Protein 1
Amino acid sequence: MASLAEIRARLAASENNNRSASTEADNAIYAHWNMKEGSSSSIRFLPDGDNNNTYFWVERAMIRLPFNGVKGDMNSRPVQINVPCVEMWGDACPILAEVRTWFKDPSLEDMGRKYWKKRSYIMQGFIRENGVPDDRAPENPIRRLIISPQIFTIIKASLLDPELEEIPTDYMQGLDFRVTKTQKGGYADYSTSKWARKESALTEAEQASIETHGLFDLKDFLPARPNEETLAVIKEMFEASVDGQSFDMDRWGKYFRPGGYRSPTNTPGPITADGNASQPAATPVAQAAPAPVTETVTETVNDTGWKDAAPATATPVAEPKATEKAEDILAMIRARQSAS
């Protein structure tokens, strides 16, 4: 049995780790998922600070690797490491190369969904009506948002509506988006979220905030692109996870680690929005990028209330070129949808 001194030391260490993670975490992220059931928030999305991005979002694809604990820590509980799926950069993902074969065997389909990439979409905007209790807004009122596939489907469907005349992020004739949280089948449900019917201009205060703070370059908040060394570590971690092993801090802690844990050298590192330590800066892998792929998916609800996509078919689709004109953005989105 641990002594009182040991208990206090452990609690103090845990508190320090949490404080460190809290300090390094960026509360610019608006946690709309913390809304209570039946609540809603009104969001005015803004363009990407990167003028070369056709859209007002960037897509993020992560893979969750569960472990039954941390090696050497007798008190650790199961942990989860989120690693980037390199298909985000058009590279071949070693994990999905393996997992895709599992869907040929019905007995492995559930395992395949467990290790399939989880998509989310990073956006930014003003929170015009806040439905999150005790939300601590940062000094910069431009918030970043991590949007689930369910909400993104609603956003995308409205953009493809031929009656939509202006891009919703237009400063003078844009639209607010109302995120509404309900419950369905025991999980959070956002299917009743929708765009406002009437256009509205940004307020003088909102325009001044853009002038003062500038817009985020959304790609800056994607994970680092793994180099060959990091990619080999990701593959090794995947194999260990599937085999039911514990997370090995000595082997992998330099690259990834569970929230609250420090690196093997006891040097704190930055914590990502997923709660993991971010990996070191990575050099792009020199590979020829395959043709962009749009996948037809089947979905199952996971324990977070989001839907996990499993592959069915894949069809190459031409990527549109970037443009800064709102009407061209809408036209390209619709053209891409028609092509798929």
Protein 2
Amino acid sequence: MHSAEHTMHYTTRKEAIQGLIQNLRDRGYVIIGPIVSDGVVRLAEIRGQIDLASGAVDVQAPGRYRLEENSQLVFSPVNGPDSPKKYLHPAEVELVKYAEGSRGVEVVSAYSSKTKYAFFGLRPCDLKGVEVMDRTMMVPGFEDSFYSGLRKSSVFVVVNCTRAGENCFCASMGTGPEADSGYDVAITELPEKLLLDVPEQSRGLLQGIELSPASEEDLRVAREMFNSAREHMGRAIEQENPARLMHDGMDSPIWGKTAERCLACGNCTMVCPTCFCNTVRDTTDLRDGSVSRVRVWDSCLSKDFTYSAGGNPRQSRASRYRQFVMHKFAYWPDEFGVYGCVGCGRCITWCPVGIDITDTVNAVLRGRRENAKKLEVSPLV
């Protein structure tokens, strides 16, 4: 991880983005960046600056998303449904494949990946999402080798946010709007140029790019833009450090009220940059008689996910939605010391019925505080 204390600040022309992309390609990276596809900003392979979703502005609300073409910025949209999880922890991975060979049953393939990804134009919340995934997928002695292999070879070019989306609440989670660590290059798009924050060990990525030392005025303008984005966050978690209070809300009526709307479709977990739940399936190919073991994404919203030989401990939709929220805001901080939510707002945008996770958390915490006040004034009996 890189610390902002050991970085250098430069400015350059916006056209230099092409040079940076080319430098990454020359180093053998597959570059993943924001593009416009079917009216949505997706993360996909890019080969040049022309592929970027420049000029598009994403207008988001609970259960709603649309693009408008009304910006002069190169990095204008905030985010779409994709995050680095799509590439580092793919939705489907063939773990192993067996087939009949000359010596009996043989392993004919096993998962591996030599791909080197450069995530270009990534937002700070998604960069933090990768760090959160690391806590789960790279536990010493229990590493997911597919994830760790891709993760350790990846490069991250992050773009600091100077505009907050309607469903963003990264300021509440301490994950944005500016990145503070973990990047190889951090870009802040000023009105007329780019401000680059570059760790010393990543200086080679800027080879051949004309740079000028950043002035105090450049840094001041960037700080003002960050503050503006922070002040205009579309959503917020009202309680600072909610983890210690969430456990007291396990019996809140809010879970049941939310479950009346929830479809248990799993959209929220699919678009979440930190959800890692999966299941394993065995399949047979009748054409050659081979057998494959495949890992696929699953969701804690699914009734079958918690089914075991002893039964299903989460029969109700309310209990499953509560598990999803509590995992992000209570269990993960207890286990890993970080929140499982990075405030990207995707679960709000892509929920078909527009359930707002910040409304849920705030209502649970509000009820807990009100109950605490009642207990404080209740006479002793």
Protein 3
Amino acid sequence: MKSFLDENYLLRTKTAEYLYHEYAEKMPILDYHCHLDPRHISDNIQFENCTQAWLYGDHYKWRAMRSNGIDEIYCTGKASDYEKFEKWAETVPYTLRNALYHWTHLELKRYFDINELLNPDTSKDIYDKSSSLLKTDNFRVRNLLSRMNVKIVCTTDDPIDSLEYHLKIKGEGIDLKVLPTWRPDKVMAVQNPLQYNAYIDRLCETAGLNINSYSRLLEALKNRHDYFNMHGCRISDHGLDYFYSEPFNEDEIKIIFNKIRSGKSLTTDEEIKIKSALLYELAKMDFERGWVQQFHIGALRNNNSRMMSRIGPDTGFDSIGDNPIAVGMSKFFDKLETENKLAKTIIYNLNPAQNEIMASMIGNFQNGRIPGKIQWGSAWWFLDQKDGIEKHLNTLSHMGLLSRFVGMVTDSRSFLSYPRHEYFRRILCNLMGKDVENGEIPNDSNLLGKLIQDICYNNAKSYFGI
């Protein structure tokens, strides 16, 4: 019987143990998609306690706490930090077989050298020890990243962001690279004219343009895109329900933009057309700059309208959607490919029923010059647990080239989430080790070691060129 979280955790064969410890364990981390706050890195902040570092902004934990009957006051409400930690400790034993149980104890072990299981009996000691360490200079956020061998962090940033904190970090000349990622979702959020126009007004100020026409909107976006590029951005990211690929012409898009700019609501057809036009133009900008574009597809967001109005978005009330994606995705990529304007692309699905759609779609648009130009991104959000990761790796292996995969991301707002890369690497090595011992692939250390190190870091470093 194996011990929980021992050195060979998740590694079920001797070959898996060898592959992990010899090839995966010490590889650096390139986190090309996360939601860390660059201000925290710039200021090299210290957290006052473990709750601030661990529970603030973590909607994964909040969902589990609510499911365990914990009142909202202990999730996003006004309870004290220690009371919130107590309620998380009360919930943890009920997360058995959920990835949260694994991540929780990996994080306690890797950052704080805490090996006890978190529960109501141990919560006070664990809170005191972790919080005490977090108050020391060795546990400022840059050291938390260094402790996990993180070399590059790509944050998620709106086009109107000044990038002031990225510039400050770069100016210090530290080893850690912190680069912006262009996330223009609000530019396409035309459903609410009042909110949309307030955002466009802010874009006017940032870009220094009066956006009184669709052409001026594109000019302002190009202005900001150039600014991001000037300051190290090489990646865009889009959160979409599905790929917008409705046929449009420029004259009708001008009319639609003028309509919403005048404060009028759009019809559903008009919304889809202008979203299709904007997504196409943004994709062309990425190609022209040589960026990588990412598309996160399939979240059904803000399902609980009462809680949305009370505490806002990104608080744990999103789930998996089931919009059809194949036809729209194919049309979108084909239009760009036909015009020779398809950038390097990573697509992520949230609905596991669409795994094979994603894995097969990427093969349609490889160009024979850039290895793995079109990527099916790592198991994301509800799928970044053991079963979801294994299914992703297996499907990619069967339908594509696992060896060209650019690997794991944290997709997290927490500086304590980096053991998720270890979790992924152990799962990867376990799959490869099992295949070796089943006689399904050669027991060739050079071949296997290279594949594992490439997936852990080398492929991403080469692919993004950062």
